């Protein structure tokens, strides 16, 4: 049986670096170490290009190279005959390698020395297992395919809609993949950022925290629609939150919710959640152990996130269809009859940030939704709402396509559950929900109206 | 490769004898490279010649190419510091390895086990990677002509001087 690159893929993730042999135009061989080799597909790999050196000169002259790769779990070694095709200096492959190289540089004391200039893409023309190697048995491994099967079944069996699907996916990571620190984020494309809707394994859930597109492993995974994986701690891709000094009005308006990541993280993996060709969110996992996530984990989580993306899309569509035929009709008691100290709800119009008394709750579309619900409740005494009326409300500025309304309702509902003892949102039927208000409410709007 | 043999400095010779992670490359008549990990290395007293110890199966094509082309490049790396040196020159297979070759290979292996154990590499793995199956080592006589700094960084690839002959 002829070998393809899948056979030797673990060697590219090895703690033992590859070496590369080339020959110059005048016939002099050259051998050196490779900082990082990246699997592209069963017939292609990419090598990190950092310096203009003899290897680069030889590759450009003859386009041929021989790579020696060793699996650091078993010792199995392969020689890969390569043909240079091209260099990519931007895009998903480049970003994947840049992230991997940052981890390797940090681990080997080469931070500041290694800088990826390009991803040199090669066709693998042949693979030969090195004779005379007595490979040691690989230590017992997790079986990502079995874990994927169990997780996939759990998602398929989940009948509880958008909210329950998020929980099912995060629970499956813990139960079946032995992954104990994870987060799910959805993309707000209009704002160019991702917001966290669920997590596991942290002291604070971090629900509502935001990551800019392109920031760290999560932001790059979403921006480039590609998995980003790092095997060693690197400050280049860490989510560091340094409290900024603010004074006066700004200090009262701090709206940042810290990302809940581990203080010390070695391994990180972010995979995009894609549906209909569009990135909808990111599944992020991390671990304090080095080299925790391999290519097999990457495969499994990409497949899982693909299924999750479809399921979330279907859950969203189901809510929309139900909302089309059932309009809200029930009314609540008149708020004037409620007892207790009034809850002051402030809204800053410039970003729809909402504060409950002095505590920041949420901003953006989720903030605008809560404001609308309370406004209706105070004006009409109505506490039953439909997805459809939210979607049709121009003040919420929901995008026409892929508005992720369900994700924003989940975000709002979860933030209220964490931050308020008197406001609550409860699903009542498909496409419908109820706002519970436990105290009188006073609304205060601050700032100029936003231009349409 | 018409250059004269270079004389290694004492520090270079000590570094090379390590033990180090060692790979050698040669090429055939069509300039296709061959590449193998080596089992060990001995620097001659005059520091102008090395004896490279290779596994006969792992280095099968390399040995063939050296026999045909006579050209050879060898890279020596210290995994713990990443210090790396590449030597280029001429080589030929020796009729027989030195009498103490197997003892040297074993010392080389033992040193690697001791060095890499704290970094999580088991003796079994080090044996598999460094030694492989137990065929006796074969020897290549190697005369380095040029030396290159190969430690990762922008200086990698720069030619460096040995001692004057």
How far apart are the first and last residues' alpha carbons of chain A, in Å?
Answer: 64 Å
Number of DSSP strand runs of chain B: 7
User: Which ranges of chain A are low-confidence, i.e. pLDDT below 50, for 5 or more consecutive residues?
Assistant: 241-247, 325-330
How would you name the CATH homologous superfamily of the largest domain in chain A?
A: GAF domain
The first-level CATH class name of the largest domain in chain A = Alpha Beta
**Roughly how many Å is the radius of gyration of chain B?**
15 Å
Averaged pLDDT of chain B, please? 92
CATH architecture descriptor name of chain B: Roll
Number of domains of chain B: 1
Helix content of chain A: 25-40%
Strand content of chain B: 25-35%
Largest sheet of chain A: 7 strands, antiparallel
Please state how the strands of the largest beta sheet of chain B are arranged side by side: 1-2-3-6-5-4
Q: What structural category do the secondary elements of chain A indicate?
A: alpha+beta
- What is the CATH third-level topology name of chain B? Pnp Oxidase, Chain A
Q: Which chain pair has the greatest contact?
A: A-B, 42 and 47 residues
For the record, the count of structural domains of chain A works out to 3
Please indicate the percent range of residues of chain A in DSSP E strands (runs of 2 or more): 25-35%
Number of strands of chain A: 20
Number of helices of chain A: 11
């Amino acid at each position: 049986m002829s070998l393809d690159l899948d056979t030797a893929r673990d060697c590219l993730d090895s703690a033992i670096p590859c070496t590369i042999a080339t020959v110059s135009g005048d016939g002099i061989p050259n051998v050196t170490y490779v900082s990082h080799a990246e699997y592209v597909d069963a017939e292609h790999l990419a090598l990190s290009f950092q310096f203009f050196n003899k290897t680069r000169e030889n590759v450009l002259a003859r386009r041929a190279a021989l790579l020696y790769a060793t699996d650091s779990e078993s010792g199995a070694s392969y020689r890969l005959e390569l043909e240079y095709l091209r260099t990519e200096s931007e895009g998903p492959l480049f970003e994947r390698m840049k992230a991997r190289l940052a981890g390797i540089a940090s681990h080997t004391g080469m931070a500041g020395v290694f800088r990826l200039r390009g991803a040199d893409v090669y066709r693998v023309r042949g693979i030969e297992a090195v004779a005379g190697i007595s490979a040691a048995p690989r230590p017992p491994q997790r079986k990502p395919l079995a874990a994927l099967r169990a997780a996939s079944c759990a998602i398929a069996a989940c009948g509880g809609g958008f909210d329950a699907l998020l929980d099912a996916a995060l629970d499956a990571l813990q139960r079946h993949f032995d992954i104990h620190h994870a987060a799910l984020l959805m993309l707000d494309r209009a704002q160019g950022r991702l917001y966290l809707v669920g997590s596991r394994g942290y002291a604070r859930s971090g629900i509502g925290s935001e990551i800019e597109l392109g920031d760290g492993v999560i932001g790059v995974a979403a921006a480039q629609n590609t998995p980003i994986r790092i095997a060693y701690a690197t400050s280049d891709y860490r989510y560091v939150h340094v409290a900024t000094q603010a004074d006066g009005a700004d200090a009262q308006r701090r709206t940042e919710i810290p990302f809940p990541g581990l203080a010390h993280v070695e391994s990180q993996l972010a995979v995009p959640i894609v549906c209909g060709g569009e990135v909808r969110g990111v599944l992020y996992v991390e671990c304090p152990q080095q080299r925790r996530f391999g290519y097999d984990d990457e495969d499994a989580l990409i497949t899982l996130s693909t299924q999750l993306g479809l399921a979330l899309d279907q859950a969203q569509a189901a809510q929309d269809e139900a909302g089309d035929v059932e309009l809200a009709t029930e009314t609540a008691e008149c708020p004037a009859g409620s007892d207790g100290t009034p809850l002051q709800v402030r809204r800053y119009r410039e970003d729809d940030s909402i504060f409950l008394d002095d505590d920041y709750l949420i901003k953006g579309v989720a903030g605008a939704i809560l404001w609308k619900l309370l406004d209706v409740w105070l004006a009409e005494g109505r506490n039953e709402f439909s997805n459809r009326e939210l979607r049709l409300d121009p003040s919420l500025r929901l995008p026409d396509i892929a508005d992720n309304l369900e994700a924003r309702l989940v975000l709002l509902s979860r933030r209220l559950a964490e931050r308020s003892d008197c406001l609550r949102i409860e699903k009542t039927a498909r496409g419908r929900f109820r706002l519970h208000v436990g105290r009188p409410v006073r609304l205060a709007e601050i700032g100029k109206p936003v231009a349409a | 490769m018409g250059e004269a043999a270079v004389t290694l400095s004492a520090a270079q010779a000590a570094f090379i004898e390590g033990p180090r992670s060692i790979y050698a490359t040669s090429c055939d008549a069509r300039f296709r490279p061959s590449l193998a990990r080596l089992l060990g290395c001995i620097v001659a007293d005059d520091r102008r010649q090395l004896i490279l110890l290779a596994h006969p199966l792992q280095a099968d094509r390399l040995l063939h190419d050296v026999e045909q082309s006579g050209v050879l490049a060898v890279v020596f790396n210290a995994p713990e510091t990443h210090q790396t040196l590449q030597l280029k020159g001429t080589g030929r297979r020796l009729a027989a390895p030195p009498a103490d070759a197997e003892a040297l290979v074993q010392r080389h292996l033992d040193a690697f086990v001791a060095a890499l154990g704290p970094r999580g590499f088991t003796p079994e793995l080090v044996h598999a990677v460094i030694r492989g199956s137990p065929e006796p080592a074969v020897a290549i006589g190697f005369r380095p002509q040029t030396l290159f700094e190969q430690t990762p960084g922008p200086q990698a690839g720069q030619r460096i001087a040995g001692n004057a002959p």
